[in-house]
Amino acid sequence: MEKREQLYEGKAKKVFTTDDPELLIVSYKDDATAFNGLKKGTIVGKGVINNKMSNLLMQKLEKEAHIPTHFVEELNDRETVVKKVSIVPLEVIIRNIAAGSFSKNYGVEEGVVFDHPTIEFSYKNDDLGDPLINEYHALALKLATKEEIELIKEYAFAANCYMKAYWKERGVILVDFKLEFGRLSDGTIVLADEISPDTCRFWDAETKEKLDKDRFRRDLGGVEDAYAEIMGRLS
Ligand code: ADP
Ligand code: UDP
Hints:
alpha+beta; 7-stranded antiparallel β-sheet; 5-stranded antiparallel β-sheet; 14 strands; globular; binds uridine-5'-diphosphate
């Protein structure tokens, strides 16, 4: 499978067409951004790690948690063939522990463990700064149907259940994460985009050390080492 035209260049990935109209190739970059693109930088080797981690987790979720995903085939260190979807413009965020914007918005200390995981949606729109919305807003904005939202919630909680246990076995606490879903040409909802240290918060279970993009966002140092460490836990 070969790349044809570049369809899109995002903050972390490039997306290419292929000779199959139903398939795309995504290419992971080392570019890192935070705060809606305001902070920019490079995390050396991130593209390779995010590509491999995302592919591994998506295959697990497909097989073990029965969540359909866009994953087709890893081509090389940075490139993967995926099913082309029309992205549902929602960032679906699941949280097990208070951190980041939850702590800030609701005045809760980072690290408070929830009795039940939470779900929230942001409207994926860079110009508006990805505002937080609820299901009724998503319906009013025609971002998805009621049935699609129900399915997305079911898949997102199932992904959390599976991944929480998976990471726990590897000495990692899955604090929170963001998922994106899309529609195949026949309307089937599948998990798309990526699952990586860019899109999840991972804490070492023993030391509570941050092993994710917060090291970049908060200038904590050791960014590359943290990405390598979390990737190492997978093998
Ligand atoms: P951003 O657009 O936020 O800068 P990226 O750099 O990760 O993010 O760009 C990848 C883009 O590709 C995102 O907009 C994402 O929603 C989209 N995307 C992810 N998976 C698929 C897919 N299977 N088909 C079509 N688009 C996808
Ligand atoms: N997240 C993401 N992309 C975004 C916003 C958030 O992948 O555009 C992820 C982030 O890595 C974290 C979770 O979603 O794992 C919750 O992020 P939060 O709302 O706390 O936002 P932040 O603190 O990054 O502003």
